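Q: What would this complex look like in 3D?
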Amino acid sequence: MPFRLFAAAYAAGCVLLMAGPAAAYVDPGTGSMVVQMLVAGAAAGFTTIGLCWSRLKAWLRRDGPAGPQKPD
Amino acid sequence: MTGSTRLAGSFRDPSGSVHDVGGRILRTVTDHAAAEYEALRDQGLYRRLAEHGWLVDAAEVGLPALGAAQGLAEAAEEAAPRYLIEHPRVPHLSFPYEWSFPLLRRAALLHLDLHLAAFDAGATLSDASAYNVQFRGPRPVFIDLLSLRRYREGEYWTGHRQFCEQFLNPLLLRALIGVAHNAWFRGALEGIPTAALARLLPLRRRLSLNILVDVVLPARMQRRALGDDATALARSVARRPLPRAAYRAMLARLRNWIDRLSPADTGRTVWGDYSETHGYADDEVEAKRRFVGAFIAGLRPETVWDLGCNTGDYAELALASGARRVIGYDADQGALERAFARAEARSLDFLPLYMDAANPSPDQGWRQAERAGFAARAGADAVIALAFAHHLAIGRNVPLPQVVRWLTGLAPAGVIEFVEKTDPTVRRMLALREDIFPGYTAEAFEAALSREARIVRAETVSASGRRLYQFERG
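A: Here is my prediction, written as structure tokens for the whole assembly.
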């Protein structure tokens, strides 16, 4: 999971480096806060994707072939 | 107790302040921090971390002393304390610019280990100052229990920038570029700015994920945000909470990364191999060890300062001969790293620190008192300066009588080695330069030493004329 988070931060960072100026202010921690915001955003993204994925899996399972039946 | 008891470096945190009252270290806890303190105390976090050796011990002091502390707080111009806590005194304060690479790495790992343990118990650290870590021998301990407070769901790690500047960036400077952090850290005091490190990193170093997250991106974002509106970031932060797992992952990732860091310049240093390559024959080493061992055994000093400690041979001998602890000083990073490895591997109460003796740590910081200098922290019971004085007298042109006065002023008793000009080491030092040291003689050394102290005994310990002097001040 940590790797996923930071891979996402890396990707988001690359996008941000190409984007326009970030809405932020100058204090000694600005850079750190923005990076953590990216991590937070990536984590939220993963949570959403994870949720959608589990719903999709559940939906497929409901409509798919039935599994082996348990013996009585 | 008066306001003057407040330690000069204790003024930034409104949670309380630290006082030295007749040798006792007392910490006030103000209303500002009382609720946090009570919560963590009652859940036993301080006790558990202290039992682990990670956090300094803390004991609440009774109400009579607290009454006195009210006066102390008024004089110190802070809110009246709700609690007064006593800590054991750290035997010798040292600062990150005096630590070699392995000490700084050890301090960083302690900081992260303590933070992770606290985090799992529902707490976090409000800052990440390297000055909150001190060493007892080679073992680090966190000294500021009021930095700990309860974790708030969704919050960001506010100490991340400070952690990077005071721990990570100085380590990376050495690990990636091969430059020791000490001189820069001593000049900047708050550490090595991320923006500055980012400018120094070669392109191939910037491609790592860790470097991107902790150095390149923060530096880039900081620069990009110049002139932007402060409230916009605050709103964005409020809208996007940092999940608990992501916060913990940041700490764990940094811990794993720092644990793997090692100095880039692991080749030979000038004095790193001295203990194997010195010019002594085995019996001469034995004579020197006997002399020093007998001095320590006779005095049984609490604290010994070993100037030019090298890899710690004589520090270890001093401990084995009856010294309680040794603080070593050297300017050679390779030697200091080996000395620390020795202290750690053999659990010695030996703390090897970085110091250029011709330019010791000054009193500096706010009002030039925040971080005490080398002289202000003096207090050794004995000093040993073996194969050391000629580096000041010849290597740095300090007049010999001044060298002797300085060394004898550090402790009431000690052993100093005098190395003749005919010795191979001194001959090498003079090989490429003019000999402008007519006053550098054994006679002049003895005369200078006799003016400052009583010579208890002296012995020639090598064929090249190296001579040890034991002195005692009146």
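A: To summarize the key features: Chain B touches chain A through 42 residues (CB under 8 Å). The radius of gyration of chain B is 25 Å.
Q: Very helpful, thank you.
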